Amino acid sequence: MANLTVVGELDHDKLTKLPPLVDDIQINFQLSLDLDVPSTFPSSIPEPVRTFFASMSSPTDILTSKLVSRVKGTDVIEGGYNFVHILSLDIGESQPPFPFVLRFPIDPDSISRSQTRTAVGCMLYCQRHPYLNIPTPTIYAYSCTHGSEFIAMEYFDGDTLSDVWLDLPDEEKEDMINQIAEIMRSMRTKTRFRMIGGIAPDGSACPLVDGVDGGAGEVLVDSFGLYNTGPYKSVREYLQGTFDRRYHYLDQMLHKGTLPVKFKEEMSNCLSHSNPEEIFERVNRLRDKFKANLYDCEYPFVLRHGDLHGRNVIVSRSSPRRILGIIDWDFGGSHALPFVDDDFELAHPDRDHDMDERVKHADELSHYEFLLHRLVGKRCSPDAELSYLMTATRLYVLDY
Question: Considering the entire predicted model, what is its pTM?
Answer without folding.
Answer: 0.88
